[in-house]
Design brief:
Layout (H helix, E strand, L loop, with lengths): L21 H16 L6 H8 L4 H6 L3 H24 L5 H16 L3 H16 L4 H15 L5 H20 L8 H9 L4
Helix pairs in contact: 1-2, 1-4, 1-6, 4-5, 4-7, 5-9, 6-7, 7-8, 8-9
C-alpha cells in the first residue's frame, strides 16, 4: 500500500499555547480600552480583542469585570505613584522635593491624553463605587508620603489636592493650561515665593 492510500494517522493532540504574559497583556489592554471607550464601554469582548486573546481567557484569569478593573486601575495608580516617588526620591531639601513634585505634575501627570482620560475614569468610578476608593486613597497617600519628609501633613495634602485639581482643570478646560501653573501653585501652597 502506498503512502497516498494509507489511512490518516491520528493527529497529535493540540498543545495548549504557553502564554505567560497573557494576564498582564489583558490588564494593559483593559487600560487601553478604558482610554478609548471609558469604563462604561469596557467589556470582556473589547478587552479580549484588544489583548488578542480568546474571550475565554477573560474568565480564566479574572472572576469578573470588577476584578479586572481593580487590577487595571491598581496598575495604573501604582505606575503613577512610582513616577512621583522616583522624582522625589533623592531630594534632601524642600526645594529639591518640590522641584521633583512640580516636574511630576508638568511632565508625568500631563504626559498624554490617554493618562488623563484613565485618571478621570478612575476618579469617576471611585466617586460612584466606594470599593474603588482604596485605589485612589492609596495613590494619594503615596504621593503625600513623597512630600512628608519636607512639609507638614496639611501642606502635603494641599499640594496633592492641587495636583488632582490641576488634572481635572486641564481635562475640562478648552484652553491650554497656563505655563508654570504647577510651579506657581506649589510655591504658594508651600509659602515658597
Amino acid at each position: 500500500m502506498s503512502d497516498a492510500h494509507a489511512p490518516d494517522a491520528p493527529s497529535a493532540p493540540r498543545t495548549r499555547r504557553h502564554d505567560p504574559e497573557r494576564r498582564d497583556r489583558i490588564i494593559d489592554a483593559c487600560l487601553d480600552t478604558i482610554a478609548e471607550h471609558g469604563v462604561a464601554g469596557t467589556s470582556h469582548r473589547r478587552v479580549a480583542a484588544a489583548a488578542d486573546v480568546p474571550l475565554g481567557s477573560m474568565t480564566y484569569h479574572f472572576t469578573g469585570m470588577d476584578e479586572l478593573l481593580r487590577e487595571a486601575f491598581t496598575r495604573f495608580a501604582d505606575q503613577a505613584a512610582e513616577r512621583v516617588e522616583r522624582r522625589t526620591a533623592d531630594a534632601t531639601t524642600l526645594e529639591e522635593a518640590l522641584a521633583g513634585f512640580e516636574a511630576n505634575i508638568d511632565e508625568d501627570v500631563f504626559d498624554t491624553d490617554r493618562s488623563l482620560v484613565i485618571t478621570l475614569e478612575l476618579y469617576t468610578l471611585a466617586a460612584r463605587r466606594p470599593e474603588f476608593r482604596e485605589i485612589t486613597s492609596r495613590w494619594m497617600s503615596r504621593t503625600r508620603a513623597c512630600l512628608a519628609p519636607h512639609v507638614d501633613p496639611e501642606t502635603a495634602s494641599l499640594l496633592d489636592a492641587m495636583n488632582e485639581g490641576l488634572t481635572i482643570h486641564r481635562a475640562l478646560h478648552l484652553e491650554e493650561p497656563l505655563p508654570h501653573l504647577a510651579r506657581e501653585g506649589v510655591a504658594r501652597l508651600s509659602r515658597r515665593r
